Amino acid sequence: MKSAFTLLLVIGAAGASQLGCSDDAATPDDGGEGGSSSSSSTVATSGSTSAATGAGGGSSSSTTTSTSAASGTGGGTTSSTAASSTSSGAGGAGGEEPLGNEIPTEIPAPTNGGGEIRTSTTVLKNAANGGQNVYDFNNQKIGVNNTADCDDGEGQKTVFEVEDGVTVKNLIIAGGLPGGNGIVCKGDCTLDHVYWEDVCEDAATNSVDGATMRINSSIALHSADKIFQHNAKGGSTTIVTNSYIADFGKLWRSCGDCTANGGPRNLIIDNVRVDGVKTTIAGANQNYRDTVTITNLYVKGGYDEEDDKPKICQEYRAVTDHMGESEKLHGGASQWNTDTCRVSKSDIKSW
Predict the structure, then answer these.
(1) From CA 255, how far away is CA 278, in angstroms rounded?
(2) Residue 247: which H helix or E strand, with range?
(3) Which pLDDT score is estimated for 91?
(4) Given this model, what pLDDT does residue 44 score?
(5) Please, what is the end-to-end C-alpha distance for the chain in angstroms?
(6) Distance, CA of 88 to CA of 96 (rounded, Å)
(7) DSSP secondary structure of 253-277
C-alpha cells in the first residue's frame, strides 16, 4: 500500500478546470458527472467567514474572523454513526503535520447552534491569493441557500469552493437542500474532519486536472447517488482514508460523460468503513486508464461473494461530450486485480 500511496501522491499540480459535466438524471447509475455551481460567491480570506449579505451575480469580500449563526438550517438534525475506531498509517498533508488515522464515530454537535445558511458560495482563497492555507471551522455547520432540488442532477449551488493548496478542517456541511453541491476543490486540497449530514448533489468534487483531493477522518451520510465526484483528468487523484460513509449509491465515480472527457483518474481508499452501499464503492473508466486502489475496506455485514454484494469496483466504458451513455463492462460485476481495479478480496473485510 505504501508504495502505491507514495507513487500516486506525486502526481502533478493542478491544471485547467474540467468543463461542462452534468448528471443524467434518467441514468443515475451510469452517469457520474458533477453538478454546476452558482456564480454568486463570498470570498473568504480568514479562517471563518461571515455570511454574504445578499444573493446575486456579484461577489462580496469577507475578512471577518467569526461566523454569525442563522436561526435555522433547514438541514435537519445532526446524525450520529456507529463506526468503531481503527488504526492504520495515513500520509501527511503537504507541509502540515501528519493527518490523524482515527475513524470518527459520530458527527460532532455544531458549535454555532442551529447552523448558518449562506446566500452564496464561499470561496476559500489560498495564501498566495490573500487568504490562508488552513481553514479551521471549529465544527461550525454551514450550508447555502440552494433552490435546485437535490435529485435534479445539476444546478445546485456549491457551499464551498476551495482554492489550490487549501486544507479545510472541522467543518459540518448542513444536510439536505442546504448541502447543495457540497465542496468543489479547484486544485490540490485536503478535507480533514469534514462531515456531511445528508449529501444533496455530491459531497466533494475533484475538478482540476492533475490535482489531488484528500479526504481524511470524515463522515458522509445519505446520498441517493455519488458521494465523491471525480471530474479532473490528467493523472488526478482522490484519496479517502480513515473515514465512515453510509447509505449511499457510489462512494466514488470517475466522470462518465464530461465535456472533453478523458483520464486517467486515480482513487486510493484505505481504512474506510462503509454501510448501506446501494450500488458500488467505485466506478472507474477502463477506456481512460483510471485506477482504483483499495486496502482495508470494512463493509458492514461483509462482502457477499456469491451474490457479489455490495459491488466493490466496477469498470465502465465512458463517453465524451454527451455522445451516448457510459457503459458498465463485465456485466457490472466487481473486478479484482485488474489494471483498473487494483483490489484483492482479502482487502475487503467485515465489521
Answers:
(1) 19
(2) strand 244-254
(3) 35
(4) 76
(5) 21
(6) 19
(7) EE-SS-BT----EEEEEEEEEEEEE
On whether the CB atoms of residues 281 and 274 are closer than 8 A, the answer is: yes
The count of C-alpha atoms lying within 13 angstroms of the C-alpha of 186, restricted to the half-sphere facing its C-beta, is: 11
CA distances from residue 68 to 46, 140, 167, 213, 268 in whole angstroms, order as listed: 14, 10, 22, 29, 37
Question: In 187-246, where does DSSP find H-type helix?
Answer: none
CA Rg, the chain, in Å? 18
Q: How is residue 134 written as a grid cell?
A: 488552513
AA identity, residue 189: C
Give the integer Cα–Cα distance in Å for 146 and 161. 15
For 327, the 3-state DSSP assignment is strand
CB 230 within 8 A of CB 267: yes
Q: Which residue, chain included where needed, has cell 460523460?
A: 257
pLDDT confidence of residue 311: 98
C-alpha cell at 190: 485536503
Q: Which residue has the cell 477522518?
A: 217
Determine the pLDDT at residue 37: 41
Torsion over CA: 35, 41, 44, 48 (sign):
negative
- In 3D space, the residue among 136, 133, 223 whose CA is nearest the CA of residue 181 turns out to be 223
Residue type, 307: D
Q: Which H helix or E strand runs over 216?
A: strand 212-216
Cis peptide before 104 (omega within 30 of 0): no
Region class of 100: left (phi > 0), else alpha (psi between -120 and 50), else beta: beta
Residue ranges of the chain with per-residue pLDDT less than 70:
1-40, 45-100, 153
Calculate the alpha carbon distances from 208 to 17, 231, 316 in Å: 4, 8, 21
